[in-house]
Design a protein that fits this description.
Radius of gyration: 19 Å
Largest sheet: none
Oligomer: single chain
Helix content: 55-70%
Shape: elongated
Strand content: under 5%
Order of helices and strands: HHHHHHH
Distance between the termini: 44 Å
Length: 248
Amino acid sequence: MQCYPGLVLALSSLLGALALLQLSLYLRVPSRYGKHEERLCRPRGRLPARCAWFLQELPSFLVPALLLALRSPPRLEPLGCRLLCCLFCWHYFYREAFITPNFVSSTIANIHEEGIFSLEGYYLIYCAEYPNDWCTDIRFTSGLLLFLLGMGINIHSDLLLRQLRKPGEVTYKIPQGGLFTYVSGANYFGEIVEWFGFAIATWSLPAFAFAFFTLCCIGPRAYHHHRYYLKTFTDYPKSRKALIPFVF
């Protein structure tokens, strides 16, 4: 397999268009799952949450891993490219495909588009060209720091959410601690920071398109979570923002 720049550009543009479509669809009306699901009119044909989460994210880990393993000659240089590939696969191994699904507590979940996008993996393995000193470039180091910061926020916020309810409980509670002190969607904020950090570290169109898609996909989710909390809990902190601390 070889790199097709035209294909990369076309798919990146498509991803940006899908991001705008997501934003237009779900900014006014939340996607119907989790706390926003219509309990009395539950659609049929939906998978259990753990199974759905695993299936939707598995391709994003397997496809880049297989492309990397099957590439001939192997992609061994430069070090910066190897690190970026490892970061991408690590995210989907730990956060999405194998570890996090074991902690999903919802009974059902929708399958999103995110799991089918392996454009970033293809670009890094077959198209990306970095100088040998890319690891010392300010874009790589700053992007890596943002990526790790976002992942830390994301994992810590998910841990706080899992601790809200005891086994068997189904009622929603007010998230407390960590970045939830400042925003209702702390886990979403961490995810967005993570992928924009990755985009800066790779300095590539596919990565920025994917970061924009992530923002448009889960940003509205955080906004609707915030509105839900304000409507449901009279004692919900009024100073807490929806997604960006002190801003929005």
